[in-house]
Amino acid sequence: MKKTWFKELSVYQIWPRSFCDGNGDGIGDLKGVLGKLDYIKSLGVDAIWFSPLYVSPQKDYGYDIADYRNIAPEYGTMDDFKAVLEGAHARGLKVVMDLVVNHTSDQHEWFKKSAAGDPKYKDYYIWRPGKGKDGKKFPNNWMATFPGDGWQWNEQRGEYYLHLFAVEQPDLNHDNPAVREEVKSIMRFWLDMGVDGFREDVITYISKREGLPNGFPLPVMRGMEHYSPGPNIHKYLLEYRQVLKDYDAFQLGEAPMMTPENALKYITEGDNQQLDMMFQFQTMEADCFIVSYIRTKFNLLKLKRVYKNWQTKLYGKAWNTNYLENHDQPRIISRYGDEKNYRVESGKALATMYTFMSGTHFIYQGQEIGMTDYPFKDWSDFTDVATFSAKRLMEKTHLFSKKKLFENCAYAARDNARTPVQWNAEENAGFTTGTPWFHINPNYKDINVAAAEADEDSLLNYYRAILALRKQYKDAAIYGRYEEKLGRNKHIMAYDKIADDGSRLTVIINLSSKTVSARGARKCVPKGAVRLIGTYKWSLADMMKPYEAHVYYTAAPQAKQ
Ligand code: GLC
Ligand code: CA
To answer: What is the per-residue DSSP string for 132-146?
Structure first.
């Protein structure tokens, strides 16, 4: 596998609104980020990905963009951004921007002009007349991801527009060459400024089937088979890819519902490659049924299958990404770990699990200190549009009691990941000197960066250590071949990562709150292997304690003597 700088990155994701407030207005901002660059660098990560910083009415917290070439005033100015970019680069940190071009905000100039029928902009979006006698019926039966209707009536234009997300996020019409030119020009704008890559929001949705036919009559995501993916997706992505030819930058596509087989159509290395890597969602489905609102018990066998699938099917052909959290996912310790009894241990076990997989590595703000989900008590505690539309949709199905419905929404809520980062035990967790825009998790007195810095055995320091090991043993950890062990064990995850020279890492983790037999696990440890790190200080004995993890290194055969 070809070695490239972006394959080796560990990327720290910042969701700016909740990272750090630099001016006391209660909202995270770029000044806050600037003050934390040394902290970010100290983690041993190599890059920062910013969730959208652009001008936005914040209906979907920045994923509804009103101006692609300016910074949201609440986050700062373009000069503030340039200072952060320079400060990051000076510390050897790359900077990745979010590129959200499936849709804009309905407050974008393009949309306003399109609604007004301005000839230049009239086909920038997907407009259709209403159907039926009264001309008010929807053009087709598609639904939006934030469950609800896929169409919204616009009085001024006298037509419907398509929105696959919130009503305030009209979909752009990528079939229009002028729109594609706009996208390329936005990319160049940021690349010329010096950014190092893009994370491309729901990029696999940008092409819609001609004629917009009705979708298969599903209760959710109806119409999806006509745009995920659509007929021209590879053509459009190849066109956007051309922009990168002039820059040393990379493209990462967010890809809901993606399988390894389909991913290979986008990311196989070679002339037809359209993206460098993708975010798949399958590793986030070990505790739910397709959507996070339908909860199941955490199923390690399911998770192991998914990892094995992606690690082996892409090997030698295409590049993976590995993440456990982001701004759309609840906190991982609250999902796959045990936040009540083994918060730190399960955090370490999960960190160990994914850090030695092949792929570009991602950490979401707060993950490194083991932040947990927020204890939501009431519907008024939520702020995310997605939760309210999920509620409406679930109410219609009558499948859940009121209590269960609330529990499902609280468990799945994206708001769990969006509470402010807990910096210290002082007022407002040190996030702001003002009034925080959103709830601070009441556990901030125990769980915060300052406390973790002071504790040698903290999750934070564990992340530092394993990120260093990922680099030190990169031929095995980052580029090695994945070989699953104990595939049928329901509690233990074990695998080898084998470098080209035969040296290997062996990772063995009890991913459960139970003490389990270590008989099988012990057989996985090669003779002469050296233990590098683990959840506890001891080495593998007859039994494995809850969330006990070990990483071993075995030198290449010829190097032994
Ligand atoms: C992506 C983003 C999510 C956003 C959606 C619409 O999934 O990660 O936060 O709501 O796209 O832009
Ligand atoms: Ca602020």
So the answer is: STTS-B-SS--EETT
Pair of tokens at residue 93: 């940190």
State in Å: Cα 155 to ligand 2 middle.
Answer: 36
Q: Is 201 in the pocket of ligand 1 (CB under 6 A)?
A: yes
Question: What is the rounded CA–CA span in Å between residue 200 and residue 63?
Answer: 11
Any idea which ligand is nearest the CA of 104? 1
Average pLDDT in the chain: 97
Q: How do strand 530-534 and strand 549-554 relate by DSSP bridges?
A: antiparallel
Per residue in 109-131, pLDDT (tens digit) is 999 999 999 999 999 999 999 99
d(Cα 277, Cα 265) in Å, to the nearest integer? 11
60 touches ligand 1 (CB under 6 Å): yes
* H or E element in which residue 544 lies: strand 543-544
Q: Place 220 in a pLDDT band, splitting at 50, 70 and 90.
A: confident
- Average pLDDT (342-369) is 98
Please, what is the end-to-end C-alpha distance for the chain in angstroms?
29
- The answer, yes or no, to whether any atom of ligand 1 lies below 6 A from the CB of 325, is no
Enter the pTM of the model.
0.98
Catalytic residues: 201, 254
- Cα of 257 vs centre of ligand 1, distance in Å, is 14
Residue partners of 405: CB distance under 8 A and separation at least 6: 391, 394, 395
